[in-house]
Amino acid sequence: MNWSSAFKGVTAPLLIDNIDTDQIIPSREMKTISKKGLKKGLFANWQYVYAKRKKIGLNKDFILNKKEFSHSSILLSGKNFGCGSSREHAVWALIDFGIKVVIAESFGRIFKNNCARNGLLTIELTRMQIEYINKLIKKSTNNNLIEIHLRRKIVITPDNKKFAFNIDPFVMGILLKGQDFIENTLLKERVIDSFLKKDKIKRSWAHL
Amino acid sequence: MPLTLFEKIWNSHRIIEGENQPDLIYIDRIFLHERTGSFALKSLKERGLSVKNPKHVFATMDHIIDTFPGRGDETLMPGGKKFITTMRYLAKEFNITLFDIDDPRHGISHLISAEQGITLPGSIVTCPDSHTCTLGALGAIGWGVGSSDCEHALATTTLSGIKPKQMKVTFNGKLNEGVNPKDMMLHLIEKYSASGGSGYAIEFSGDTIHMMPIENRFTLCNMAVEFSAFTGIIAPDQKVFKYLKDRPYSPTNNWSENIKHWKCLASDDNAVFDKYIEINASDIYPSVTWGLSPEESIPINGKIPRANNLTNHEKNKDMASTLEYMGLKNGQSLMGLPIDAAFIGSCTNARLTDLRSAAKILKNNKISPNIKAICTPGSADVKKQAEQEGIDKIFKDAGFQWREPGCSLCFYAGGEGFLPQQRVITSTNRNFRGRQGNGVRSHLASPVTVAASAIAGKIVPPQTITKQ
Ligand code: SF4
């Protein structure tokens, strides 16, 4: 994903608070040791209709199953999105579906970090701003395109209002440069090793 | 500058101070389990990276394995065996200590990391699991991460992060009869919401905590993540030092020197926290959840709040769908609500103290004939000690299944689960939709409430049984 220019995408509102990672992808949907193909399990409890634990079809009422939203790349949600289990599959499943940005009032900490490590942008807006966008989209589902400028740190609503957001400059740097997180730290190995050398003397009890 | 306990540990581990950026923090120990650890190791291998210090990395099998007696690598979870064998193979390849299924040190990662003396006061431990915060009970920072960050820790022995804000939660006074640390956390989360701790590291303090046995402190810190906190921590005291002495991986040299060092691990008297919460222990009653978030709890003799008391329109809709899922109504009381199953287990409430207190209630009693009841001790060591004390017999005589250690029915991974619409009273930490099986209605409660309810066949507070 190239974040250096503006990004415009279909936005699906899912305005429920505390959507936990078990909802984003239930445990039973994480069947293989692979990051691919997880969109089948994305929001599985809502995506499908079940009878006696068996999937018997798609849930037509679920937003991402609706025609206007089947190509959503932005998700709009409430408070504490991605709380709960640390499973990174939640992020991989969203990415696999095509989600590039999640806008919410706040995020689960681990989820937010997992997003940053995988190039998924998380944006925090206020409740009022989120409800404003939600209303617009609900009023006319064709009016569901949101524009995002990462460099300028603004979200442009379907009716052209600009909402500014904050982002950790470190995460922004990584997203803009598409840098690898681990390699970035491995460059500092010398500093780490000299810390370790001193620490082994200072806190010998902590070293096996 | 006066510092909090968390800040002291954080600062002593800071390799690079990030200006306007995350700090680079040294990580003392890494713990892996077969569910997410296998991912991290596999990805590391694919990238051709190595584990920087395998001596400080440990692994267990807890999430996917079966808990039926006589179990092996086969598990009910479709594709589950692959996680187990991959973990085993990669642990060996990377030279990591693995507590495999048959190992007497085996168990749920957050339990055995303490039992084995792997987590020490003043240290920072990580695990690709959100309940790593459990270990704060030993005066350590338990830092739960995702697979990518775990990979980062494996390859570099560091994590990068912004120091969280500081919150002090004080519990003072004597706990009411039948109140367990689980109830304390349900009370806190109900009052301040499931996101109330978001952005904070929480130090639990107050005389209620000081008086509390170490095993109960794990339950408190374990639930810090359900409050959305970065982690929970408790200043280590004599109880902690005694707990850690002679554990397999505890330091053997200079024990008194170490204690001298660990004793300094407390917040300075004039340390400033960003937020304070004070709770009177006597305000807490045995509680149970009615909804799909740990914040949706009430004292067992209370009533579910009425949706029209909530102002937010969306929240009302949300509440209606929650109640429909749970098969409950606005304003309903949960006391006496019939249940189909009871579960005692998980990293929240499956330690010896938990099993002992549940056994006290189960002794000379039988569970209701209509329900299924299961107990999975948290670790092989807990199981062994419980059996030495005859606790297994009490559970079995009462009608509980007595299982092998593991996460088991704490979460449904497509393997063993309860049935749709079954109502379960459970000592676990998450009542999320479908967490214990598709359509399952989970009610979180303390292990004593679970035991009492299993006997009654319906939700009742623990005193109901003890008073009989
Ligand atoms: S017992 Fe439950 S909460 Fe604890 S580590 Fe296992 S699955 Fe997670």
Report on this model:
The complex is a heterodimer of chains A (208) and B (468). The longest helix of chain A is centred in the last third of the chain and has 14 residues, at 189-202. In chain A, strand 5 (101-104), helix 4 (109-117) and strand 6 (121-124) form a beta-alpha-beta unit. Chain A folds into two domains: 7-177, Aconitase, domain 4 (Alpha-Beta Barrel), CATH 3.20.19.10; 179-208, no CATH class. The model of chain A has no long low-confidence stretch (mean pLDDT 92). The radius of gyration of chain A is 20 Å and the shape is globular. Chain A is α/β, with parallel strands linked by helices. Chain A contains eight helices and nine strands. With 468 residues, chain B is α/β, with parallel strands linked by helices. Helix content of chain B is 31%, strand content 17%. In chain B, helix 2 packs across helix 3 (80-93), helix 6 (181-192) runs parallel beside helix 8 (214-222) and helix 12 crosses helix 14 (391-398). Chain B has 16 helices and 19 strands. Chain B has helices at residues 5-12, 37-46, 80-93, 109-115, 147-156, 181-192, 207-211, 214-222, 238-244, 255-263, 313-326, 352-362, 380-388, 391-398, 447-456, 463-466, and strands at residues 14-16, 23-26, 29-33, 57-60, 97-99, 124-127, 141-144, 158-161, 165-172, 200-205, 231-233, 275-280, 287-289, 297-299, 341-344, 372-375, 401-402, 423-426, 441-444. Chain B folds into three domains: 5-161, Aconitase, domain 3, CATH 3.30.499; 165-234 and 266-283, Aconitase, Domain 2 (3-Layer(aba) Sandwich); 287-466, Aconitase, domain 3 (2-Layer Sandwich), CATH 3.30.499.10. The longest helix of chain B is centred in the first third of the chain and has 14 residues, at 80-93. In chain B, helix 6 (181-192) links the parallel strand 9 and strand 10. Chain B is globular, with a radius of gyration of 21 Å. Chains A and B meet through helix 4, helix 7 and helix 8 of A and helix 2, helix 3, helix 5, strand 8 and helix 10 of B. The complex binds iron/sulfur cluster (SF4). Residues 62-63, 108, 129, 131, 346-347, 407, 410-411, 428-429 of chain B line the site of iron/sulfur cluster (SF4).
